[in-house]
Amino acid sequence: MVVLKMVTLILSLGMDTLMMSISLGFIKTTGKVRIALTFACAEAVMPLVGLLIGKGVGQLIGDWASLIGGIVLLCVAIWLIFFEDEDDEEEKLERNLVGWTLIITALSISLDELAVGFSIGLIGVPVVLTIILVALQAFLFTIIGLTFGSRLKRHLGEWAEKFAGIVIGLLGLWILVDAIAHLLHR
């Protein structure tokens, strides 16, 4: 039963990483390992932060963390779809997806791991092993997503960035609706 819980948890946490990575693959194809390592680190650190904050504070922040993550992804999607100047944007992203921009992107998709960290000790899975597997999953899903996205870009042409925005928007909307439903269910 513990193995099933871990597999379900790890795969469900990896879906947003995979979708974001595919979207990034449409517009950025270099630095895959650097991006994957950053995403893996963020996804490994967030459950630890959640675990340290504790259950009492975690319940309140955890619900809002998913809500904020959904809103951030929707904002990124709106920018990609409506405000991105298609000339030179790929070159700008190549230069700008470093430092704080990369860290903020990684943290925005790892907010669900923060919420999981609040209850990771209560769901009956080994904490250290789970965090290691979450980081490994994030690294692999990021590499797969970036590679798949860059290959799809050839077929989508100039629409790749718009499609990336749509995918990120749908992911953000899904996270937002799920967070609101969770808040209303309480």
Automatic annotation (TrEMBL):
Transmembrane domains' residue ranges: 6-27, 34-53, 65-83, 95-111, 117-143, 163-184
Matches recorded under InterPro entries: Mntp/YtaF
UniProt entry keywords in alphabetical sequence: Cell membrane, Membrane, Transmembrane, Transmembrane helix
Pfam families in UniProt: Mntp
Keyword Amino-acid biosynthesis: no
Keyword set includes Membrane: yes
PANTHER family per UniProt: MANGANESE EFFLUX PUMP MNTP-RELATED
Protein name: Putative Mn2+ efflux pump MntP
Species of provenance: Alicyclobacillus tolerans
Record lineage: Bacteria, Bacillati, Bacillota, Bacilli, Bacillales
